[in-house]
Amino acid sequence: MRFAVNVPTSGGTSEYSTLPFCSGIDWPTQRAYGLAAESLGFDGLGVPDHLMTGDGATTECLATVTALAAETDEVTLFPKTVNDVLRHGPLLAKQAATIDGISDGRLKLGVGAGWKADEAVAFGYDWPDAPDRLRAMEETIELTRRLWTGEAVDYDGDYYTLDGAVCRPRPVQEQGPPIMIGGGGEEFTLRIAAKHADEWNYWGPTSVMERKLDVLASHCETYGTSFEEIDVSWFARCLVRESDAEVEALLDDAPRFRDPPDDDPMSDYHNLIGTPAQIAADIERFAAIGVDEVDLEFVDFPDTRGMELFADEVLPALG
Predict the structure, then answer these.
(1) pTM (2 decimals)?
(2) Could you read off the pLDDT of 59-90 as tens digits, one per residue?
(3) Cis amide leading into 169 (omega within 30)
(4) Alpha-carbon distance 232 to 269, whole Å?
(5) pLDDT single digits (tens) 123-144
(6) What domains are there in the chain, each with its CATH number?
(7) Quick check: helix, strand or coil at residue 33?
(8) Within a 10 A sphere around the Cβ of 300, how many other Cβ atoms?
C-alpha cells in the first residue's frame, strides 16, 4: 500500500475549513511541509485545486505542483484533483507533459469535474450542470492521451476541436503520466473511470467504497476493460496522537471532527482518528477491500507532529 500526503493550498475560515490550526498559506510553508513528507518516506504529495477557499490566500494548484517538483527528488506528485472546468483541456495536456519533464517522470494527473461552483463563477467561468462537466472531462482525457504521443492531433468533439495540435516535448513517462479520476458518481464518473482511468480516487467508509468498487467493476465489464488494472486510492483526513488522552485534546481543538451533524459534509467522510495502533487497524480494513493508496490530509497542518508519528509508528505497523 502507498501513502501520499496532502499539501494544502489554502487556510483560514470557511464552511469547508478542515485545517483548524492553519490561519493562512504560503509557499515557504508548503515547501517545508512537502520536503518533510518526502524525508519521512511518504510515497506522494497531493495538491488540491481551488481558486479561492476560506478567507485567506489560495495558491494555484499546478504552479504549486511544479514548484514541489523542482524541490523534491522521489515522491510522486499529483493534483487532487484538477477541476476540469477551470482548465482548457488541451492546454492541461501540455502543462502536464511539461511538469512530467520537470519532475523527471513523477507526475500523476488527477482530474475531476469539480464541485465548488462559487469560486468558478467568481472567476468568470460558466458552471454547467454535472453531466455536461463530466462529458467535457471525458473529452479532456481522450485528447490528452492522444496529445501525449507527440503526433499531430485532429479532434472533433462536443467541447473541443483540435486541428493539427502537437504536444512536444512528450511526457517523460513512456505512456504519459497515470490518469487518476476522482469522484463517486455511479452513472457518469465511474463509467468514465472504467473506460479511461489508471487510478480511481474517492473517500468514505468501507461500505461506501465497496459499493462504488462494485459499480466500477460492472462498468469495466461493460467496456471490456480490466478492473484489476485500475489502482484504487482513498482520501482521508487524519488526527493521530500517541495516547487516547492526546487524541481527545486534539479533538477539543478540532471539534468538527468529533461528531459532525448529518448536514455537515464531513459526516460523509471516514476520518482516521486515534492512536497509531488504532489507525493502522482502521487502514487494514481498507487494504482488505482493495485500496492501493491512502491519500492523507493531516489536520494538524502545518505542524508536522501527526505526519511524523504516522511515519514512525503507523507505516511500520502496516508493513
Answers:
(1) 0.95
(2) 999 999 999 999 999 999 999 999 999 999 99
(3) yes
(4) 17
(5) 999 999 999 999 999 999 999 9
(6) 2-317 (3.20.20.30)
(7) helix
(8) 21
Please name the residue that has the C-alpha cell 489560495.
58
Q: Which residue has the cell 492526546?
A: 246
Q: Which long-range contacts (CB under 8 A, 24 or more apart) does 205-213 make?
A: 205/270, 206/270, 206/285, 206/286, 206/289, 208/184, 208/268, 208/270, 209/234, 209/286, 209/289, 209/291, 210/289, 212/184, 212/186, 213/289, 213/290
Our separate counts of H helices and E strands in the chain read: 11, 12
* Euclidean distance between CA atoms 42 and 187, whole angstroms: 34
Residues in the chain: 319
Amino acid (1-letter code) at residue 94: K
pLDDT the model gives residue 11 = 81
Where b means 16+ CB within 10 Å and e means fewer, 181-217 reads bbbbbeebbbbbbbbbbbbbbbbbeeeebeebbebbb
Identity of the amino acid at 245: A
Q: Which three cell numbers stand for residue 42?
A: 511518504
CA pair distance 239, 250, nearest whole angstrom = 8
Contact (Cβ atoms closer than 8 angstroms) between residue 54 and residue 48:
no
